[in-house]
Amino acid sequence: MHEHVFTRHNVLLQGLTMAPEVGRNEVIRTHEVEPRVAELIRLSVADNTRIAYRSDLDHFLRWGGAIPATPEMVAAYLAAFSETLSVATLQRRIAAISVAHDAGGLPNPCKSILIRSTLNAIKRVRGVAQKEAKPLLKEDLFAILEVMGDCVKDARDRALLLIGFAGAFRRSELVGLDVSDVERVRQGLILHLRKSKTDQLGKGRKIGIPFGRGRHCPVSAIDAWLERSGIVQGAVFRNINRHGHIADSRLSGEGVAIVIRERLRAAGGDPSGFSGHSLRAGFATSASQAGVTSLKIRQQTGHASDAMLARYIRDGELFIDNAAGVLL
């Protein structure tokens, strides 16, 4: 058997650099590896990461870039899109170009001082504040629930909103829940999160969902939905057509955002700026406003540190003991 030389990025980027219509660009060189080894390396990175790399690199190639690229070429690319793409998107594009060069064993233009200086200049002009989803606060959530009906879709959406909020779930985590992940205990529910954005190795995490103290109980809501739908295995949250038929297909992450915006609009609110992340952000902000410690909030959200949670806590505490409120 021949000894194969390879790098992790070689395997991850095989077939990534060339869209069919971009035939004039040079293909990244890759090394042959054993099929099983290649598969294991491929699985070491999330599918979404590979898809993002492929999309970002294709954009660079369509613009007129090539692999290998020079620092001047990459800097010109950054300048061309400095006013139309966000700083975060430009940084992601540079990461994809950088990985492509490392994968081919090529000199990496993205590590040059020219690229660092160009990016820093764009940051200074554009700013680096990220666009954040508006939090769906507890009061907003309760206002939505008050005007909801009792059809099949209402039952699903009620459970979706309450569980998403109480568990501080990312939208991918919420729609990824299966019936087998739901464990009933005396205090409420334990939801077993098998994998998440920050847990690609699948170590798993348990989230406690206690019984609600008022009318809007997340435990009762999910029980009512499962009983109404007749779902006993597979995905908890599924697509429903306009005739009320429950599909076998799992609700998508974008579907969560659509539900939030539709329900806000029905309650007389403005859905602008709300997304599938609004339930998670709303829980963290509402908990902070209620005086819950950052440690307890992190236990529910799964944030690794207070630094990752800081923006929610800052927003939640803006009006707590506000100096202007004392004076005016």
Structure description:
- This protein has 328 residues and is mainly α.
- The protein folds into two domains: 8-126, Tyrosine recombinase, N-terminal domain (DNA polymerase, domain 1, Orthogonal Bundle); 138-316, hpI Integrase, Chain A, CATH 1.10.443.10.
- Helix content is 50%, strand content 7%.
- The chain has 15 helices and five strands.
- It has a three-stranded antiparallel β-sheet, with no helix packed on it.
- A hairpin with a 2-residue loop joins β1 and β2 (188-193).
- α8 (152-166) runs antiparallel to α10 and α12 packs across α14.
- The longest helix is centred in the first third of the chain and has 17 residues, at 47-63.
- It starts with 7 loop residues before the first helix and ends with a helix.
- Mean pLDDT is 82; it is low at 1-12 and 15-33.
How would you summarize what this structure contains?
With 328 residues, this protein is mainly alpha-helical. It has helices at residues 8-12, 35-43, 47-63, 71-80, 87-103, 113-126, 138-146, 152-166, 171-175, 218-229, 253-266, 278-289, 294-301, 306-316, 323-327, and strands at 182-185, 188-193, 205-210, 238-240, 246-250.
CATH class value of the largest domain: Mainly Alpha
Gyration radius over CA:
24 Å
Show unreliable segments.
1-12, 15-33
**What is the helix/strand order?**
HHHHHHHHHEEEHEEHHHHH
Distance between the termini: 81 Å
> What is the number of domains?
2
> Strand content of the residues, in percent?
5-15%
How does the overall form come out from the CA principal axes?
globular
What is the spatial order of strands in the main beta sheet?
Answer: 1-2-3
CATH superfamily of the largest domain: Intergrase catalytic core
Number of E strands: 5
CATH architecture of the largest domain: Orthogonal Bundle
On the 0-100 scale, what is the average pLDDT?
A: 82
| Biggest sheet features | 3 strands, antiparallel
Kindly state the percentage of residues in helix: 40-55%
Which structural class matches the secondary elements? mainly alpha
